[in-house]
Amino acid sequence: MATTRYQNSDVRRQVGSPRPKGRAAAQTDSSDASVPSFNPAAIREFTPSFDVASTATPSNGTTAHEAAVAYDPFSMQTVGQSLPTTPFNPYADDQAALGAGAGFFPSQNAYQTPLQPLQHHLYSTWGPKPTNLKPYERTTSDFFIPEDVRIDLTKKNEAANQVMPNSQLPQLDNYHSLVPLDTTHRKNASIFGYNSWVYKAKATRTGTVVCLRRLQDFRLSNEHAIRSVKEWRRIVSANVVQTHDAFTTRMFGDSSLVFVQDFHPLSQTLAEAHLATSSHGGRFAQKNPIQESVLWSYITQIAAALKVIHGKDLAARCIDVTKIILTDARANRIRLGACSILDVVHYEARRPVAELQQEDFINFGRVILSLATNTHPSNLNNINGSIEQLSRVYSVELRDTVLWLLSPQQPPAQKGIEEFMRGIALHAFAQLDVEEQSRDADKSHLSTALENGRQFRLMLKLAAINERHELSGDPNWSENGERYLLKLFRDYCFHQVDADGNPVLDVYHMITCLGKLEAGSEEKVCLTSRDEQTSFVVSYKELKKQLGSAFGDLQKASKQAKGL
Ligand SMILES: Nc1ncnc2c1ncn2[C@@H]1O[C@H](COP(=O)(O)OP(=O)(O)OP(=O)(O)O)[C@@H](O)[C@H]1O
């Protein structure tokens, strides 16, 4: 079998056969000692660490920047080449071409890192790891977002995209595709004084999914009432559902007041999550006793919300287990869900904010007492008895905290949220730690998604080139020149077969090949034609250039067709 070292010339001529046929076969260049031999095992449970493959990293000073992909997902041109002074682009293919003044650093020569060049073809290995694996062991799932996170996000996306066929709900002026979120027909008018309904809807102008809370049969008597919502737009807190707007409408067949809020898919109220109605008499029965650490987490988050709200001279007014939503059950993330509503509804009977803020503390205490004793707030008639019940299960500190919240101050003395926060600081730090750990895990997942995104862009380019029917009237474009090698690379990467011609589906091999191509590694690969008559030894770096140039042809033709 002839082995041809590829020289950037017309490979079609070197192949010597009009159109290669037959089974794809390819092998890694065995003359390159740095290349790990490819073991065509099926998807491995454990794959060796990429540290093993790292022996094959560029040795000729390929810099981090050379090895990275252009930021524009499809741009194969050096970004900013035509600009006189170009900002440093860490993703550019060729930093040298940017010119001396283009770098973030005084000149490219001055940029000499004492570190090894980054190995962009390797998946990063930072972030929390399963502890039962050796440091060099990785599972196939390591390359993707963890299953539980994927399921959670997918379910949330599904919930956000859910539609209701044959819906009788009206289309509003600025919102359409309403889907009711109330899971029960039981309506409780005691909180707002009106029956309320919650819908998911799509904003006509922006296409974003929002949550609409509708108060049925509400008659607006004062135009200024609705403007008080403006104040709530200023409240930006991780523990408050953001309110955007409020309007009245007759589209539901009555006079309704509607609040527009952020939509948090698959959220549950604290009552739904922790208190369950029994089938008889509407009494609430506990699902599982709530751990004390969860209660402290809730306390810390409600306090954080009140800090922002009271800090803007507003009062939450609606702190209730049925109006606080759990937006991420795994992380115990909660948000106050119905602030702003009572400011509009009770506009005529306005009361001093300081007084309402003091009431917030009492409602806050009732929420915690209700959760700790598994009693619906409307049944919390004997506070002392409930406190006693709480102290039988939970710590003295929790009991004292709830007592502090529930006991009214003798005027002119007033409770302050900062004073309360100082008192629970230890628990707030515990919550902070949980949040930081969860952020670490999310960052780690994000880095996996980043790597996958890079490879996905590469696959889009390959797919756009391989087997293209014709380009600019040339029916053989995708089979000629550099495109032919890209086709063989596609075979090498994805169409591996064993000695009997059976497919070898080695995810590790596919990911590694794409990673090296994406990084433009100096490592060489031996690509064999389908008829097994010709082989080409070519580096990933050259393949990457060829991919760029072939994709550039496509872009040029596409732009010409559009007259650009
Ligand atoms: N901003 C939001 N994003 C997503 N879902 C929400 C949002 N606000 C509320 N929900 C969900 O809508 C459903 C109904 O909420 P609602 O406040 O009406 O509770 P409820 O228990 O039905 O109270 P009530 O008896 O007062 O009507 C709940 O499952 C809640 O989790």
How is the topology of this model organized?
Layout: E1 2-5, H1 11-15, E2 25-28, H2 50-53, H3 147-161, E3 175-180, E4 196-203, E5 209-215, H4 223-227, H5 229-233, E6 243-249, E7 256-262, E8 268-269, H6 270-274, E9 275-277, E10 284-286, H7 292-311, E11 324-328, E12 333-336, H8 341-345, H9 353-373, H10 383-393, H11 396-406, H12 417-423, H13 425-465, H14 481-494, H15 507-519, E13 524-528, E14 534-539, H16 540-561
Parallel strand pairs: 1-14
Antiparallel strand pairs: 2-13, 3-4, 4-5, 5-7, 6-7, 8-11, 9-10, 11-12, 13-14
Helix pairs in contact: 7-9, 7-12, 7-13, 9-10, 9-11, 13-15, 13-16, 14-16, 15-16
The structure holds adenosine-5'-triphosphate (ATP).
Helix content: 25-40%
Number of domain units: 2
Strands across the major sheet, in which order? 3-4-5-7-6
The class by helix and strand makeup works out as: alpha+beta
Q: What small molecules does the structure contain?
A: adenosine-5'-triphosphate
Per CATH, what is the topology of the largest domain? Transferase(Phosphotransferase), domain 1
Look at the structure and give the CATH class of the largest domain.
Mainly Alpha
Largest sheet, if any? 5 strands, antiparallel
Form type: elongated
